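Folding Query — how this chain folds
Tokens — whole-number codes for backbone shape
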Amino acid sequence: MSQERHPSARRCNASNPLAGYCGLVAQRYGILYRLGITPWEHEEAPEQLKDLTEEWAMPVGRALDIGCGTGSDAVYLAEQGWTVTAVDGVGQALSKARARAQSRGVEVNWVQGDACRLEQLGIGDAFDLMLDRGCFHDFTDDQRDRYARAVSAVANPGAVLLMFAFQPRRRGLGPRGVTGEELMRHLGQDWELLSSTQDTEVRLPRWLGEIRPTWYRLQRRL
């Protein structure tokens, strides 16, 4: 199916309130993409996402991939029948994501913008399933507060948020990480933690340190 009906990715500019985030974080990740240092990239959807979609008891609806990278998870969700919007701050990643979707014959609404200001991106609301595979754990406390308000604003009551995050590291490089307690300090007002499971199968570079990757499943309070 053609993707021509979808708008081109929205971009940050100097007069756009998204410019601050895009100029700092997206620029850093853009450099890493150009250097080929992308340990977060993957070709297949994780088992945790597959399990969630297989367990889904309601009709599929709207899904949001936050920090989608090159789009493997967003494309997987589209293949399962979800109406998918995917947001990332790096144009290079989104270009690869669009090519991936086209090669697989699915439609995804790709949007370049700030994950902390989802409600300002024109993506609508009433999302039923939301995925964050390594976005939240790299934010400052202020960005985490804005993220919490943003995901709550665009989520349906009862929506599920599946999040992959590193624990705070004692050594190594990479994202700052987040504990379950810290996560709920930011999200607990509007979200209930359903489960927390350490991922013992994922293989990541040793230079990231003792990151103890963890999957969280949360549900938007009714």
